Amino acid sequence: MVAISSLTAVLSYAIALCGIVPLFPWLTTAPRFALAAGMLAGIWQDRRGAWPVKNWQFNLAVVPVFLYYALQFSRANPAQPVVNALAIMLAVRLCGGKSVRHYLQIAALSLFCLASSSLFDLSPIFLFYLALMLLLVAVSLVLLTFHSLDSSLVLPRAHLRKVLAVGMLMPLASLPLLVIFFPILPRTQIPLWNILAVPAARPSGFSDKVEPGTSATVGESRTIAFRAEMPRQPKQQLYWRGTVFNSMDGHRWVRNPAVPPEQLLYKGARIAQTVYPEPGPFRALFSLDAPASIALPRAQGAPDGVFAYPGPITRRLAYGAESVTSGILATVTGINRSFYLRLPPRIPERIQRLADDVKRRGTGDARRLELLEQFFRNGNYRYSMRDLPTGEDALEQFLFEKKRGHCEFFASAFALLLRAAGVPARLVGGYLGGDYNELGGYYLVSDDLAHVWVEAYIDGRGWVRVDPSSFARNAGEVWGGEKRQSPTMKIHLFLDSLDHTWNRAIVTYDFEQQAEIARNAGKRLQKLETGKTARAFLPYLLLTAALALALAVILRRPRLFASRNERLLRRFYRLIERDCGIRAETGRLGLFETAGLTGNDAVREFTAIYAGALYRDRKLTAHEIARLNRILRDGFVTKM
Amino acid sequence: MTLPHDNRTMIAMLNTLSSDYLHGKEEVLRLSMIALLTGGHILIEDLPGLGKTTIALALAGMSSLSFGRVQCTSDLLPSDITGLSVFNREEGQFTFLPGPIFNNIVLLDEVNRAMPRTQSAMLEAMEERRVTVEGMTHHLPDPFMVFATQNPSDQSGTFPLPESQLDRFLICTGIGYPPEHLERGIIAGGGIRERLEGMTPVASTADILAARKSVETGIYLSDKVVGYIYALVAATRSHAMIQTGLSTRAAINLAQAARAAAFLEGRDYVAPDDVRGIAVAVCAHRLVMRPDQETADRGGVLRALIADIALPLA
User: How many Å lie between the alpha carbon of A629 and the closest alpha carbon of chain B?
Assistant: First the structure.
């Protein structure tokens, strides 16, 4: 036995939690405190059964709060006061005494709270809360109808189960409507009032300059940078090109926007990919090195194979890219050698000496590159994220003393040496590697994979990708071998694929796609061919039919999966009705009473055999079943 | 199907009684037989002159059982029923003279006219099957069956039996008027009291005891039927018009009576039909109705209640 009143109270607190939890991080302190206090006070008072403060007193007390938030309201800050006021109203309702009207108000306010949380954040967890809340609200509404009739009603468990089942069925029944409404209704891709908050919150491993020596350690963040849908690629080809740093001023590499014109030739197989960048303050559009094309309106391509978005990527985008992963970028004509040989005004003497040495020993660009590679390979350099050289002469320290550093040190020093030795070179910034998500079929690239490598221009071949970090003594430890996926990593990837699906299917689904669907539907309708359509619809029809059948089977299970006795009895009653004109309602008339009414010997015999087994608690023997079937086959028509 | 061999005698006895002697009284006779076969007692509530005594006499005569009769009045003493000790001058000691209760079938006519003290003594004897007089315990004969009657219309100067004592009667039933054609025949043929004198017994005491034994042990009571009986009893306990539902003793009696009914049907197992057939007779008089429902027809309430309980058929 369960009291309706306690059940509705528990449900309404659960509903309130569904609204409060997603909104909580976005509230200011006072409403947060009010919500927590209101909830606890409400539960406590409900348990005690006494509400010392009347609801009208509460309502009166809220008025100044309203005024306060109304004064806070401005065009610059339209959402926060509204949301805070909403939260306080919910808190007040939670802690007051509750009639049916108040329960409904709590449900409505909680729904508003949940909805307003989407002003700040569009994460898939919203769907979870929404689904949970709809389910709870439906059940709660059903219970409230009972509650409004008799608040002291107590339901036995069996009845309660039925009520709950009905309550849960209602939202489920509305699912088909969801499928219809989803493509039609307008939507937003960005949290409406929080356009800047999300990107700013994201720390990044990728930056717009390469400046080794600014700090002795480098933190690693697992924040997602982007996802790229594509087939699995060999690990050594997973260089994601973002930008090119083409000039060195002092001790840092930056991108000079005046890129000298050159024409790159993309030879070899093209790998198609769809990239979903996380919104962030950067404009670089990443893709597998090197992208031949990126299909995104307003994306700007530079001559050095870099694509960028005109502004920061503040909303969820998706773009297709085609890449050639050979690692060599041939050019149609030559390049502006002097631009890519430009050096900072003052180079440390030791570095200049080393470069001169290389220049002297190697006659061509290719030979000089080889010599430098040998120097790095034999130089006993270590790849490290800690205890890094710092200061103005960080590169010099890295090359000759500490001999440890991360990719920025390796790449900066290598490119500087190349240029000093007369080989045109530039830095490429991007990411290296990525976790392949088998479930979603995409690479997950996180910020800790940010990487910088070098492109050297060799006459006759073109831009050659060189990754100096791979010359480190411990490069094998850092990159070598397949990373074993730990169970937590697998779970992480699974959850991420859910997140990705949500972004892909729900958040980035915009008006363009709606229009696209409508256009396609129109086109298809125009060239509709009956046979083809029938074939195309057949699977859906079959699916629907199968679902309907399954539903029918479930609903009529007792009839369809009747025991042998029930089947016999059903036939028996049908025959009685047909042959003897006695309509026996099942369970209302005893077998022997029925037999007595018909006055038919065959009926008597059937009854005797059937009841003899049934009421002796034993199964009918094969012989008896055969006999019963024979009786039923012959029917009960009285032989004259 | 195997029949218990000794039910043929009982069925024959029932058939002879209803076809040769007591026309139109099949139901009462069947219920009386059920009471006899389960060792219970029967209370017949009906107007005088409908054959209550005749039924008791006929039953006794058919089964060669001894018959005793007590006409209850308000000055009837317990010793008038149980018997008393009389000083025997020749032997110089008290000898016990057994009362009419020391018979196999005892007719207590108009039992509600006796004083509560007498009623209670008698009902105690019914339950215990023995009588204690002046410190001596005397066992009553076996089989022992009380055939009590009461007149429902005339309530003045009566002591209605309390619920606890009504509960001791296995069966309570009416007789009703016989159907028209039978009554015409009875009017034409006159009473049958004289003919009853010359009845030839069909069954012996041993037959009856054997039949009783096989009712007790030879009739299978399925779990399904037990469930049905329980559902019935439970339904009376939560009914809106009933203050006190059926006791566990009532449920036991219901099962016993159903066994006997199945036995008389020639079956060695109980069907729910048997339970339904005797439920009103066994249960109605034990229901205590709510004060505002005192006048309601208990049989009708019970019948409506039974109609709502699904029979276990598969």
Answer: 16
Looking at the fold, whether A236 and A98 belong to one and the same domain comes out as no
Asked which of B215, B237, B269 is the last residue of a domain, the reply is B215
Domain that holds residue A129: 2-173
Whether residue A56 lies within 8 A of chain B, CB to CB, comes out as no
Interface of B with A (CB under 8 A): 1, 220, 222-225, 265, 267, 269-274, 276, 307, 310-314
Residue A451: other Cβ atoms inside 10 A? 23
If one compares B254 and B132, the residue with the highest pLDDT of the two is B254
User: pLDDT of A352-407, one tens digit each?
Assistant: 888 888 888 888 888 888 888 888 888 888 888 777 888 778 888 888 888 888 88
Asked which of A143, A173, A203 is the last residue of a domain, the reply is: A173
CB contact under 8 A, A563 and B314: yes
Residue in chain A closest to B224 (alpha carbons) equals A615
Give CA angle at B25 (B20, B29), nearest 5°.
Answer: 90
Task: Answer whether B271 sits within 8 Å of A565, measured CB to CB.
Answer: no
Co-location of B207 and B270 in the same domain = no
Given the cut 0.90, state whether the ipTM is greater than it: no
Residue ranges for chain A with pLDDT beneath 50: 195-203, 640
Number of domains comprising chain B: 2
For A101-135, the DSSP string reads: HHHHHHHHHHHHHHHHHTTT---THHHHHHHHHHH
Cβ of B310 within 8 Å of Cβ of A588? The answer is yes
Tokens 């009529």 belong to residue? A556
B137: distance to nearest CA of chain A, Å? 42
Q: How confident is the model at residue B258 (pLDDT cuts 50, 70, 90)?
A: very high
Q: Under 8 Å CB-to-CB from A621, ≥6 apart: which residues? A: A613
Among B215, B231, B246, the domain-final residue is: B215
Interchain contact, A592 vs B276, CB within 8 Å: no
Read off the pLDDT of residues A15-27 as tens digits, 9 standing for 90 and up. Answer: 999 999 988 888 8
Residue B39 is part of a domain; what is its CATH number?
A: 3.40.50.300
Q: What angle do CA A584, A585, A590 make, to 5 degrees?
A: 65
Q: Using CB atoms, which residue from A562, A586, A615 is nearest to B224?
A: A615
Residue A493, in any domain of the structure: no
Last residue in a domain, options A429, A462, A488: A488
Asked whether residue A320 falls in the same domain as residue A252, the answer is: yes
Among A615, A619, A625, most B C-beta atoms within 10 A, so best to mutate, is A615
Domain boundaries, position B141 = 1-215
Give counts: helices (H), strands (E), chain B: 13, 11
- Side chain identity at residue A204, one-letter code: S
A198 lies within 8 A of chain B by CB: no
How far is A495 from A500, CA to CA, in rounded Å? 9
